[in-house]
């Protein structure tokens, strides 16, 4: 199977620096399903084309865990662009996908004229256009006909894309959308595929009109994974701009955004400047905290090293100015164990965290957070299970990893007991659209330490 990438940006041969592949050489790479080659059929100052050719070895392909409902021996895998080609692209152009170029860093960050061709791609003209056109591409998808004696068009198209984009953006579009169009990955789709999708879709997937279809197909129609990916995309959305706010009818902010705003308001009410985000995950709340100058010290804590890596990427910690970088740090820790690094803060946040613990582990969290760390205030949010009746088609809990979801009375009972045992007062509020019968979708508790209790206890 074949993919070509062409530019007319002068000097066009600088494409070799962006792809980190010399135009005068043929480069070969061993991949799990065969051999990938990179070559340049044309390389002049006016026009340069890089070709990625994947030679599929049928024996290796059969050895892979097959996700296709096709014959093991007769199929379109050797020639039709698919997740096989996307995987090869990821290995061969790893630096280019990240937008990294040691020799031409300014050019790597610059949109340049590009033309992409994929001669055989499974998909319809309509679907290909719906996927690529919103990303700034001019799309030509020509149906490939059957032989004249058969007549009609096959299920494949000859795809040409033209546009002015960064090379990294172009490659990431292909990496995600080739498997989406093929709709059948050649390997088992595990939860870590969510991170790959979000990483490659950064900056464009959240606003794509077909993001639901993309998430479902990329994640092999595994509903729980697609739901998690879409929730993370929603959490990444930026607040409304001033222009949006001036429109006669404002957009309804996503619940994740409303939740973050409610937490920030609670922290402000508590007078906090040194804040812990416990169970920080991918760092959505940390990013919001960092934008508020009143928070002078911010610590994100999570048990998952992968989540902390994702948070670091989201925050662009390696690119922050020193003044900003000094305000924030990430630490790995389990919230059910005492950790002296968490002591002495003005406030701690447990945003959508407690429901991911087995209820039998909650006493350990209570002792570690309210007893040992003992911040001046604690903000806890959790789903209100009573509101679930408003989610059409929802069966069970809102997330596959939730261990429980509480009613408002159950949450209030837990919070009031914890407050009484550890010397806090607590107040409650709803977050999101409030229904007269079921209440709001999210419930929030703000714990404040009793003044007479102080903020220091013996270990």
Automatic annotation (TrEMBL):
Alphabetized Gene3D superfamilies for the sequence: Hen1, N-terminal domain (3.30.1610.20), Vaccinia Virus protein VP39 (3.40.50.150)
Enzymatic reactions: small RNA 3'-end nucleotide + S-adenosyl-L-methionine = small RNA 3'-end 2'-O-methylnucleotide + S-adenosyl-L-homocysteine + H(+)
Residue ranges of domain Hen1 N-terminal in the record: 1-233
Molecular functions per Gene Ontology: metal ion binding; RNA binding; small RNA 2'-O-methyltransferase activity
GO biological process: regulatory ncRNA-mediated gene silencing; RNA methylation
UniProt-listed Enzyme Commission number(s): 2.1.1.386
Keywords per UniProt: Magnesium, Metal-binding, Methyltransferase, RNA-binding, RNA-mediated gene silencing, S-adenosyl-L-methionine, Transferase
Domain Methyltransferase type: from-to ranges: 276-378
Coiled coil: none
Cofactor names: Mg(2+)
Entries under Pfam families matching the protein: Hen1_L, Methyltransf_12
InterPro entries per the UniProt record, alphabetical: 3'-RNA_MeTfrase_Hen1_bac, Hen1, Hen1_N, Hen1_N_sf, Methyltransf_12, SAM-dependent_MTases_sf
PANTHER family: HEN1 (PTHR21404), SMALL RNA 2'-O-METHYLTRANSFERASE (PTHR21404:SF3)
Family assignment from sequence similarity: Belongs to the methyltransferase superfamily. HEN1 family.
NCBIfam families: bacter_Hen1
The protein's name: Small RNA 2'-O-methyltransferase
Native source species: Actinoplanes lutulentus
Organismal lineage: Bacteria, Bacillati, Actinomycetota, Actinomycetes, Micromonosporales
């Amino acid at each position: 199977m074949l993919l070509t990438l062409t530019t007319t940006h002068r000097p066009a041969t600088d494409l070799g620096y962006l792809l980190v592949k010399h135009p005068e050489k043929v480069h070969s790479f061993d991949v799990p399903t065969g051999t990938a080659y990179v070559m340049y059929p044309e390389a002049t100052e006016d026009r340069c084309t890089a070709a990625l050719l994947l030679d599929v070895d049928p024996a290796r392909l059969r050895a892979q865990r097959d996700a296709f409902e096709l014959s093991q021996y007769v199929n379109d895998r050797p020639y039709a662009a698919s997740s096989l080609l996307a995987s090869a692209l990821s290995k061969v152009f790893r630096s280019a996908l990240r937008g990294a170029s040691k020799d031409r860093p300014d050019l790597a960050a610059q949109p340049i004229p590009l033309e992409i061709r994929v001669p055989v791609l499974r998909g319809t003209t309509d679907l290909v256009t719906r996927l690529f056109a919103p990303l700034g591409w001019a799309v030509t998808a020509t149906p490939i006909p059957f032989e004249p004696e058969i007549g009609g068009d096959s299920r494949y198209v000859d795809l040409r894309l033209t546009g002015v984009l960064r090379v990294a953006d172009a490659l990431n579009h292909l990496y995600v959308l080739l498997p989406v169009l093929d709709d059948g990955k050649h390997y088992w789709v595990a939860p870590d595929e969510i991170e790959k999708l979000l990483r490659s879709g950064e900056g464009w997937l959240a606003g794509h009109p077909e993001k639901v279809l993309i998430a479902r197909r990329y994640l092999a129609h595994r509903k729980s994974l697609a739901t998690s990916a879409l929730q993370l995309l929603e959490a990444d959305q930026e607040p409304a701009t001033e222009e949006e706010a001036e429109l006669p009818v404002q957009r309804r902010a996503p619940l994740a955004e409303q939740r973050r705003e409610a937490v920030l308001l609670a922290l402000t009410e508590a007078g906090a400047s040194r804040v812990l985000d416990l169970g920080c995950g991918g760092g959505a709340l940390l990013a919001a905290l960092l934008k508020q100058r009143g928070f002078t010290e911010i610590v994100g804590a999570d048990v998952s090293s992968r989540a902390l890596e994702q948070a670091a990427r989201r925050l662009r910690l390696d690119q922050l100015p020193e003044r900003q970088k000094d305000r924030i740090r990430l630490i790995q820790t389990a919230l059910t164990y005492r950790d002296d690094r968490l002591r002495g803060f003005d406030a701690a946040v447990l945003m959508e965290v407690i429901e991911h613990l087995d209820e039998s582990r909650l006493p350990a969290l209570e002792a570690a957070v309210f007893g040992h760390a003992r911040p001046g205030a604690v903000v806890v949010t959790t789903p209100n299970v009573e509101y679930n009746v408003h989610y059409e088609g929802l069966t069970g809990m809102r997330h596959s990893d939730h261990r429980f979801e509480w009613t408002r009375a159950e949450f209030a009972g837990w919070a009031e007991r914890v407050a009484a045992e550890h010397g806090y007062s607590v107040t409650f509020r709803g977050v999101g659209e409030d229904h007269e019968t079921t209440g709001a979708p999210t419930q929030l508790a703000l714990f404040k330490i009793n003044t007479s209790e102080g903020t220091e206890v013996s270990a």
